[in-house]
Amino acid sequence: AADAAILDCAPGTPFLRTRRLTRAADGRAIEFVTSLLNPAHFALHMRF
């Protein structure tokens, strides 16, 4: 419910959730990000 209020949408609205972990050259974690993206405004394309 807190996320829905921040994102100005109804609770239960489907969102895309992405998580990213960035590591330094020595393997230490230096950044961890969780993003909630409204699929009405974002498209996610990944290539491996």
Offer a quick outline of the entry.
By secondary structure, this protein is mostly beta strands.
Overview of the structural elements:
The chain has 48 residues and is mainly beta. It contains one helix and two strands. It has a two-stranded antiparallel ribbon. The longest helix has 6 residues. The protein is elongated, with a radius of gyration of 14 Å. It starts with a helix and ends in an 11-residue tail after the last strand.
Classify the helix fraction into a percent range: 10-25%
The fraction of residues in strands falls at 35-45%
Order of helices and strands: HEE
Number of strands: 2
Uncertain segments are none
Structural class, judged by helices and strands? mainly beta
Query: What is the number of domains?
Result: 1
How far apart are the first and last residues' alpha carbons, in Å? 34 Å
Largest β sheet strand count, sense and barrel closure: 2 strands, antiparallel
Strand neighbour order, sheet with most strands? 1-2
3D shape: elongated
Mean pLDDT across the residues is: 90
Rg result: 14 Å
By DSSP (H or I, 4+ residues per run), the number of helices equals 1
